[in-house]
Amino acid sequence: RKEVEQDPGPFNVPEGATVAFNCTYSNSASQSFFWYRQDCRKEPKLLMSVYSSGNEDGRFTAQLNRASQYISLLIRDSKLSDSATYLCVVESGRALSGGSYIPTFGRGTSLIVHP
Amino acid sequence: GAGVSQSPSNKVTEKGKDVELRCDPISGHTALYWYRQRLGQGLEFLIYFQGNSAPDKSGLPSDRFSAERTGESVSTLTIQRTQQEDSAVYLCASSYGQGYLYNEQFFGPGTRLTVL
């Protein structure tokens, strides 16, 4: 089983739709979780961290389910500009001295929002 | 302020040649990461530097790959005797590093390496 798994998509949705992505992780000791966004031929950028209690930032909501070992990202009222690849990132496993962890990236979920 | 910068932005080389890629992290960031991203693929971790600690090289795919970082400044990734399968975008990221639970990584624009 891969450490971090995502449905590659693409998810093809109309403007205004609500879309949700899941990401599963294999290491139950994982501590930090993130969603990054990567536009075509660009570098990834942090979209939001995922807190244990779940968190919301405008149209975006992130949830963590430790029991089932997955995180989710919900996008409401999709915009054309939301079209991108969404990368799930989990920090787990290889702990270095000082408590820092190597992040593991999922392969990403492609979202296409059309008019 | 200035973000992470990488150079060159594009590099075309012949199979068998050595290449050196450079990364300038954000000032004050103690952690620095190198990743490789092949076309249509996810990010593949290569190496991690944290302050003056020994780097985590567990992601380097072969002994042709090496990286250095002096203190908390510039890092160079060197690929010796390049092969066509080394063709990819090489991304560098920096962060505040250990002690930060939610440790945002800031990525550079990447170096697109093409091995002919």
Describe this structure in words.
The complex is a heterodimer of chains A (115) and B (116). Chain A is an all-beta fold and 115 residues long. Chain A is built from no helices and 11 strands. In chain A, the strands form 2 sheets. In chain A, strands 2, 4, 5, 9, 10 and 11 form a 6-stranded mixed β-sheet that branches. In chain A, strand 4 and strand 5 form a beta hairpin. Chain B has strands spanning 5-7, 10-13, 19-24, 31-37, 43-50, 65-69, 75-79, 88-95, 106-107, 111-115. With 116 residues, chain B is mainly β. Classes of the chains: A mainly beta (115), B mainly beta (116). The interface between A and B is medium-sized, with 24 and 26 residues.
Please provide a brief summary of the model.
The complex is a heterodimer of chains A (about 120) and B (about 120). Chain A has no helices and 11 strands.
Q: What's the order of the H and E elements of chain B? A: EEEEEEEEEE
Average pLDDT for all residues of chain A: 90
* Morphology call of chain A: globular
Q: What string, H for helix and E for strand, traces the elements of chain A in order?
A: EEEEEEEEEEE
Largest interface: A-B, 24 and 26 residues
Indicate the radius of gyration of chain B in whole angstroms: 14 Å
For the biggest sheet of chain A, the summary is: 6 strands, mixed
Uncertain regions spanning at least 5 consecutive residues of chain B: none
Helix/strand-derived category of chain A reads: mainly beta
Q: Please identify the structural class of chain B as seen in this structure.
A: mainly beta
What is the number of beta strands of chain B?
10
Q: Main β-sheet of chain B: number of strands, strand sense, barrel status?
A: 6 strands, mixed
% residues in beta strands of chain B? over 45%
Supply Rg of chain A.
14 Å
Mean pLDDT of chain B: 92
Q: Report the helical percentage of chain B.
A: under 10%
What share of the residues of chain A lie within helices? under 10%
Q: State the end-to-end CA separation of chain B.
A: 37 Å
User: How widely separated are the two ends of chain A?
Assistant: 37 Å
